[in-house]
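Sample 3 of the quickstart, ligand aspartic acid:
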Amino acid sequence: MSRACVVQKYGGSSVADVTRIRAVAARIVATRRSGFDVVVVVSAMGNTTNELLALAEQISPSPGRRELDLLISVGERVSMTLLAMAIQELGEPAQSFTGSQSGIITDTRHVNAAVEEVRPYRIQRALDEGQIAIVAGFQGVSRTGEVTTLGRGGSDTTAVVLTAALGAEYCEICSDVDGVYTADPRTVSAASKIDELPLDSAIDMAQAGSKVLLAEALHQAKTHGVTLSASATAKPSGSGTRVVPTPPSSNIVGIAADIGLCLVPPEAPLAEFDGSIRGRLPDGRTLVDERNLPPLATWAVPARPIATVSAIGREAVSNPAVFERAVHAVTAIDPDVCWWSHGQTLSFLVDRSHAADTERALHNALIVSTL
Ligand code: ASP
Ligand code: MG
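Result:
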C-alpha cells in the first residue's frame, strides 16, 4: 500500500553548515518515521549562490547565461548530496537527484527559466523503493538538454511544482523564520505571526516584497491547487503559517516592503530590462526590479534606487478612513511621497533610506492601532 507523500523544502540558511544539515536530516527522518513518504527540495548552502555569482563576475562583467546556469546549479547539487548522506547516516535510505534527473522541464530562458512540465518518474520510483528523495531546488533542464535555473529563490517553485506532479498531500516551506508575519519582524518588532493566510493575500504580500513565500511559487500553488505552509526548520511541522484557499482578507493582512527597485527615466531603453519591469508612473518613469539585472553601476541610464512599502488588504483601498490613516502616517516621514492602489494593495513609493521607517509607521497605523 502506498503511503501519503509530503514535500518539504529547506532554505539555504537551514543547510548553511554541517551541523544544520544534520539537524535537517533528523527532521526529515522524523517525518518519514511518522508514516509519510518524503520528498525534500533543498537550496544551496548559506550564501553559496551569491559566492558563485561573485566568482563569475571576477572573470567576466557579463558572463554568458548558459555557463552561469551550469555554475549556479552547482550550489544545490552540493547541499542535496550532503543531505542524502546525512540521512543515510541516521539509518534511512535516501537518494539525491538534480533538477534534470527529477524531470523538471523548463523553457530556454537561462537564469530565469519557467517550468513547463514535470515528469518525476525517477522520484516516484525512488519513493516506491522506500527511499527518501532529495531534489536540488532552483534548477531544471530545457527540451534541448541544457541546464537552466528558475530565478533567485526558485527552490520554492521546484517544491510546489513537484508537490503538484506527485499528487503529494502538501508542501511545507521550511526556513529560519516560523511563518509569514504582519511585517518583516527584523524591521518591525511589533510584527506578529499570521497563523492562517488566504492564498490570494499571500500572493499580494509576496508581490509587495514579503520574502517568506515567493510569488512565483504561490502562483503555481494556486494553478495546481497545492496546499502550502511555511514553518521554521527548528520547530515541528504545523507550527507556522498555513496558506488557505479562502477569499482574500478584507482587513489589512500585513505590510510589506520591496527594497530592490529602481526608477529609470522615460528615455531608458526598456528592452534591456527584459522581464524586470514592475510598473510605470504617471510621469513616464519606469519601476524596475534590479535583482536579476547587472549591478546598478554598469547601467547606461541614471537609475534611482527606491523602495515600495505596501499595505495589503481590501480595506487599504476601499475604506477611506483606513486610507487616510495610511497616507497620514507616511507623509509624516516624506511629505512628497507618491502612492497608488492595485487590486487589494496600497503602495507608497519612498526613498530607499525611508523604507524601514515607513514600514514601521504603516504597521503602527494600520495593524497595531486596530488590535
Ligand atoms: N540558491 C538559489 C538562490 O539563492 C535558489 C534558492 O535559494 O531558492 O536564489
Ligand atoms: Mg532562498
